[in-house]
Amino acid sequence: xxxxxxxxxxxxxxxxxxxxxxxxxxxxxxxxxxxxxxxxxxxxxxxxxxxxxxxxxxxxxxxxxxxxxxxxxxxxxxxxxxxxxxxxxxxxxxxxxxxxxxxxxxxxxxxxxxxxxxxxxxxxxxxxxxxxxxxxxxxxxxxxxxxxxxxxxxxxxxxxxxxxxxxxxxxxxxxxxxxxxxxxxxxxxxxxxxxxxxxxxxxxxxxxxxxxxxxxxxxxxxxxxxxxxxxxxxxxxxxxxxxxxxxxxxxxxxxxxxxxxxxxxxxxxxxxxxxxxxxxxxxxxxxxxxxxxxxxxxxxxxxxxxxxxxxxxxxxxxxxxxxxxxxxxxxxxxxxxxxxxxxxxxxxxxxxxxxxxxxxxxxxxxxxxxxxxxxxxxxxxxxxxxxxxxxxxxxxxxxxxxxxxxxxxxxxxxxxxxxxxxxxxxxxxxxxxxxxxxxxxxxxxxxxxxxxxxxxxxxxxxxxxxxxxxxxxxxxxxxxxxxxxxxxxxxxxxxxxxxxxxxxxxxxxxxxxxxxxxxxxxxxxxxxxxxxxxxxxxxxxxxxxxxxxxxxxxxxxxxxxxxxxxxxxxxxxxxxxxxxxxxxxxxxxxxxxxxxxxxxxxxxxxxxxxxxxxxxxxxxxxxxxxxxxxxxxxxxxxxxxxxxxxxxxxxxxxxxxxxxxxxxxxxxx
Amino acid sequence: xxxxxxxxxxxxxxxxxxxxxxxxxxxxxxxxxxxxxxxxxxxxxxxxxxxxxxxxxxxxxxxxxxxxxxxxxxxxxxxxxxxxxxxxxx
Lengths: 669, 90
Hints:
Structural class of chain B: alpha+beta
Strand order of the largest sheet of chain A: 2-3-4-1-5-6-8
CATH topology of the domain at 2-160 in chain A: Rossmann fold
Strand content of chain A: 5-15%
CATH architecture of chain B: Roll
Oligomer: heterodimer
Radius of gyration of chain B: 12 Å
Shape of chain B: globular
Distance between the termini of chain B: 22 Å
Strand order of the largest sheet of chain B: 1-6-2-3-4-5
Strand content of chain B: 35-45%
Number of domains of chain B: 1
Largest interface: A-B, 45 and 38 residues
Number of helices of chain B: 3
CATH superfamily of chain B: Ferrous iron transport protein A (FeoA)
Low-confidence stretches of chain A: none
Number of helices of chain A: 28
Helix content of chain B: 10-25%
Radius of gyration of chain A: 29 Å
Number of strands of chain B: 6
Largest sheet of chain B: 6 strands, antiparallel
Structural class of chain A: alpha/beta
CATH class of chain B: Mainly Beta
Mean pLDDT of chain A: 90
Order of helices and strands of chain B: EHEHEEEHE
Low-confidence stretches of chain B: 80-90
CATH architecture of the domain at 2-160 in chain A: 3-Layer(aba) Sandwich
CATH superfamily of the domain at 2-160 in chain A: P-loop containing nucleotide triphosphate hydrolases
Distance between the termini of chain A: 72 Å
């Protein structure tokens, strides 16, 4: 049995999902899109699974979340819907309910946060509401686990008895009524054939939903009849088709609420939110506070906890590796296989694990921001700035986190509201110089720009930001042109995040990264190992200078010559940088045959100061490391998308380094 | 007096007369409950001067000024939405 969990954003959907599901949970994608689909088995009820739909306000076809939800409900045909509703904000929440009812799937209304309503001296007559809406209504508090057993019981009952909603007619104005009924009648056969509930299809047609119109495959004559019915309705009402339906629904909701809801005058939670916002969205304090919060998160994630955990983990992996390597050697394993296991596969596993602490810790903080309601304030405060490059306010968070590590940063873009913003943010985030590039910067700056260390460092970070801004400007006018999704954002009351939700999100994200990135990273490290270990005739090499990798480096060297980087050792180092940026330094050391002390001199011999700067610019901008690329594939949902990012980044890097180098030469540097 | 929501000003309330704008956006505004006769209070303007935070039907919503410009309201004297935070951020 499948139960769909549907509701508005901020209605407590995820909390309810986490409370009713047992240990068996799966995170996947909805078919064909990168929107996350969480499924879990309901604890104590074998064979009953619940699917968490995206948080939506309506079932139109304007946003990907709504289309996905609609398609899921129409095509997968869940046995029942639990529609979770924020009882403290019942009017707007019922708007979605009215549309879900039209789908004629057994449905139960879960009135969440009833404890809050009652604590503020409000009340809801659930019996009357049940009678008016024609569906079962259960008051619950997902946070406090109240009413959940009853909710599940009644939902399963409705599913088993296939109890459809008792009422679908919510018309008030005669004209709307006439139009909907005429159209329902007209399209009934088509709707039946396409397995779309006729009533739902009819209201969507009155609204002018083109997707449904196409799906129904009507005759020319039928389409004209529909248009005629709508024109008549519009003329009669003196409004337009969309407004007619919205009016009808809200009119019914207002009547219903007047009869069965006693609103709390002004809730304690609302007053508390207003006073918190007196600081957090304050005219002068908001922006400093935001950057303060971001800085603390950044510092805690990448400095305090992440680095230490990652280092500790790496230490363990190193020692385990030594032991494993030694054992295999004693066993007398073939040196090539030994190297494959230790330098290829084991390295890859270590690399994947090294990212985990950052991901888990960053998501701890991000889910606190999201669940407390602060993320909506971030969008509010930062919107004007981000809109200039065609994004909306919420995108600032992944971009700032990109300065730490691109991998968790682009993973955090997943919760962005629109597909367009999500893609653009994922594309722009790698321009933020990540932490792994710092060792490269430090080495080169010390070797070439000892007198202007801070200046050069700053210029690198700023170049990254500048190119992100430029790319944003270009993209929002070309590839991502077209109407951005409207910025209509709810500001929920601040709430205390539940530990369970936060911990489960950390777990899900960590597991997701390991599962999806693992194969990809493993394959990539093994390929790089292979290139390093053998020469073009597949003989194992003594000196890396004879390897296939060096051969590749020599092949690529002419491409880098216009950047002042014509030496094959440089191009080879850049190629190895694909596995992880800090590797660039160690490859240079190996190829120049320099030790730790002589490395500075070795690279001073290899680069002119101008070429060194060109090299830094290229390193800053070119394709992110393999772990980030694997995450691109996951978040963009396609191999092609991933490849495009890699190519785009590398081309931009080449052009930028080229400009810098050529300009330098013209200036006589 | 009739004016757009943008002109209403922080801490003041108005009753919606008309919702205009591009089709998708307008539909979304209507669906979020900004329908004619709804009472809306302007709560706050973001630090950089845009967007604007509103209060209606018992919840808070933010809109960009350009979009708020498409909503015509008539100002009403008393604050019926129960929002006591008049001009808190002004």
